[in-house]
Amino acid sequence: MNYFVIGDVHGCYYTFHNLLNKHWNKVNEMIIQLGDLIDRGKNSPQMVGFAMKLSKHFPNQVIFLKGNHEYEITEHFFISPITIG
Q: Which of 30, 51, 70, 77 sits at a 20 to 30 Å CA gap from 24?
């Protein structure tokens, strides 16, 4: 098995999708995405949905690591206390 390693995507759904369509060999390669899937680009929600879809359809061939942007958003929404007033 070979590895197809991808760095920061930052919500660039169409670029990521095209990259996989053109260069990912589904039979012989495992995707390892090194985090920072979201933020900055316009299409972070689509990126998350696409990552979930890939993980579901290719569970043994796709790994998404949590980057600092994913850490920060989960920290903000799920862990940090809400202060009112």
A: 70
Domains of the chain, by residue range, sit at: 2-79
Nearest to 8 by CA among 56, 82, 80, 70: 70
The strand pairing partners of 5, in sequence order, are 32
Residue 40 one-letter amino acid = R
Q: Please tell me the predicted confidence (pLDDT) of residue 82.
A: 65
CA angle 18, 62, 44 (to 5 degrees): 55
For the chain, the three-class secondary structure string (H helix, E strand, C coil) is: CEEEEECCCCCCHHHHHHHHHHHCCCCCEEEEECCCCCCCCCCHHHHHHHHHHHHHHCCCCEEECCCHHHHHHHHHHHHCCCCCC
Whether 15 shows a pLDDT value over 80: the answer reads: yes
